[in-house]
Design goal:
Layout: E1 2-7, H1 14-26, E2 31-38, H2 43-47, E3 54-60, H3 68-82, E4 86-89, E5 105-109, E6 124-127, H4 130-140, E7 145-146, E8 171-176, H5 181-184, H6 186-199, E9 205-210, H7 216-225, E10 232-236, H8 240-246, E11 252-255, H9 264-271, E12 276-279, H10 282-291, E13 295-297, H11 302-318, H12 339-359
Parallel strand pairs: 1-2, 1-4, 2-3, 4-5, 5-6, 6-7, 8-9, 8-11, 9-10, 11-12, 12-13
Helix pairs in contact: 1-12, 6-11
């Protein structure tokens, strides 16, 4: 089987890191290529792609409409040379590049509130969650197939010791997200730490932001404004191996997003043996309900987030953490979010797509 994946940019968002994992497992079973249209490329992330994968960087300047036609002809030549069985797009607006091969196209929608342009043109549409499926159905009437995102579960180091001594260590909280408060809610997290400092000055809580983004300076200024420099640390961008090894070093993962189609970092938190607090919105709630674990917080409410953080802090100090469903207890359910499961489902859908193409 010959598979071509296509994406506009290759930065460090959830869709891109998810795509790397999918590609690296698919290339063990098929011939896989990747087309990146724009010049927004994270070289470090690119290096994590298996060497057997053919990568085509078109280097179109992001937003440059005058470069669309040259990019179209570049893609035409690539597709004619490869003659793929499946063209898997990761942005709905990519369809015009592949109009001639419509019967071979499929699309994964990675979040809610994304553009629905050309969605009806794809032969098959996938959603990463029920929340995304419902969003697509409501806005454009398409019934997308659900394929959950997955991670390499076996590679995550697990925190097995949940003892905590506040006299000798800080209570360490982590959020792993692109620095984009409008979606990921980092400003809400900062305000919650400010409230904890005011209401409980005797406890030492530190929040670590892992990730980068355009809002870095804005968030750093907010930390300075609230005098939280010793309580909030900007780690910057890290690779996936760092997350797999070091996530266990923290006590709590939070995801105070304002909207979220899924929430892969929530799965990572559970995989590393951490309790997770996330906004009570469709994507995270779906994960919590499925796994019967986690603690919901009202989206956009720093007071509620501060209260929930303090509550989990007391669960640690009292030794009661294991008595509640804040950690994963039924680990077999986590297999639904293993990358092997994700890849298996995609390969099955590809075979169906190829079969339908041949019977037309």
């Amino acid at each position: 089987m010959k598979i071509v994946h296509a994406i506009f940019s290759f930065a460090t968002g959830g869709a891109e890191t998810m795509l790397v994992d999918i590609i690296n497992h698919q290339c063990n079973k098929a011939s896989v290529s990747l087309i990146v249209v724009n010049n927004k490329v994270n070289k470090d992330l690119l290096k994590t792609i298996d060497k057997s994968v053919a990568v085509f960087l078109l280097e179109r300047k992001e937003g440059a409409k005058g470069q669309l036609l040259p990019s179209f002809f570049k893609i035409w030549k690539i597709i004619r040379r490869i003659e793929p069985d499946v063209i898997h797009c990761h942005d709905s607006n990519l369809f015009p590049f592949f109009t001639w091969w419509k019967r071979k196209t499929c699309l994964t929608v990675h979040n809610v509130q994304l553009s629905t342009s050309f969605l009806k043109n794809y032969e098959q549409v996938f959603a990463v969650s029920i929340a995304v499926q419902k969003d697509i159905k409501k806005r454009i009437g398409i019934e997308a197939k659900i394929i959950y995102n997955g991670i390499e579960l076996a590679q995550y180091q697990v925190r097995n010791n949940h003892d905590f001594d506040p006299a000798h260590e800080p209570f360490k909280i982590i959020q792993i997200s692109r620095l984009s408060p409008i979606q990921k809610g980092q400003h809400i997290a900062i305000q919650s730490i400010r409230l904890l400092k005011e209401l409980h000055p005797d406890i030492w809580v530190q929040l670590y932001f892992v990730g980068d983004g355009d809002a870095l300076a804005e968030l750093q200024n907010l930390v300075i404004q609230y005098n939280l420099q010793e309580r909030i640390i900007f780690v910057g961008q890290v690779d996936r191996e760092w997350v797999k090894i070091h996530l266990q070093d923290y006590h709590l993962l939070i995801q105070p997003s304002l909207y979220e189609g899924f929430g892969l970092t929530i799965i990572e938190g559970f995989a590393a043996g951490l309790p997770v607090i996330a906004s009570d919105i469709d994507g995270p709630r779906e994960i919590f309900d499925f796994l019967n674990a986690g603690l919901n917080v009202t989206a956009g409410d720093p007071n509620d987030l501060a209260d929930k953080i303090y509550y989990l802090y007391t669960c640690y100090t009292s030794g009661d953490l294991l008595n509640y469903n804040y950690l994963i207890k039924n680990k077999t359910k986590m297999e639904s979010f293993d990358i092997q499961t994700t890849v298996s489902h995609y390969m099955e859908q590809y075979r169906n797509l190829i079969l339908n193409t041949k019977t037309v």
